UniProtKB/TrEMBL annotation:
Family under the similarity heading: Belongs to the ATPase delta chain family.
Membrane-topology descriptor: Peripheral membrane protein
Biological function: F(1)F(0) ATP synthase produces ATP from ADP in the presence of a proton or sodium gradient. F-type ATPases consist of two structural domains, F(1) containing the extramembraneous catalytic core and F(0) containing the membrane proton channel, linked together by a central stalk and a peripheral stalk. During catalysis, ATP synthesis in the catalytic domain of F(1) is coupled via a rotary mechanism of the central stalk subunits to proton translocation. This protein is part of the stalk that links CF(0) to CF(1). It either transmits conformational changes from CF(0) to CF(1) or is implicated in proton conduction.
Localization of this protein: Cell membrane; Membrane
This protein's name: ATP synthase subunit delta
Keywords assigned by UniProt, alphabetized: ATP synthesis, Cell membrane, CF(1), Hydrogen ion transport, Ion transport, Membrane, Transport
One Pfam family it belongs to: OSCP
Amino acid sequence: MSDNTIIAKRYATALFQLGQEQSKLDVIETELRALRVIFKGNKGLVQFLKHPRLTVDEKKQLLNDSLKDFSKETLHTLMLLIDRHREEIMIDMIDHFILKMNDLKGIADATVYSVNELSDVEKQRISATFAPKVGKRSLNLTNVIDTSIIGGIRLRVGNRIFDGSVSGKLSRIERQLVSQK
């Protein structure tokens, strides 16, 4: 585990504990999810915030102006990261906070690969079927279209993969035939 990951976890844990004490976990989670969308949609934003020509005060002013409706806990954490020149761990910190929230709620993020877009009913059925298998109450599914699986689905929860795709079954049959020779 890299130093940045360890540091990001510490900031996420501190913000999580502060959110618990202030009874603002849901508010902070909503803000951080919105911020994650902003950072992931604008890949150069973190590099911009790390730019040496921007002073710490300019960076703080930019965030204060952009995120003026955010809670003081979230803003204070972001200001600390800027003060300590840790802009590059903002996304990791947000991800770790969301993981802690998901653990608290009994939710896991998962990616489901299918040939076609899944309906909400299909996503709910997949969540209800696989959540108990990974020890969670529900799954927060992201649907990815992948025509190479031919049919069926492939589900990834953390580092676990459940493969019910046609291409996965064909490759298992191929391995069995090759190993029998």
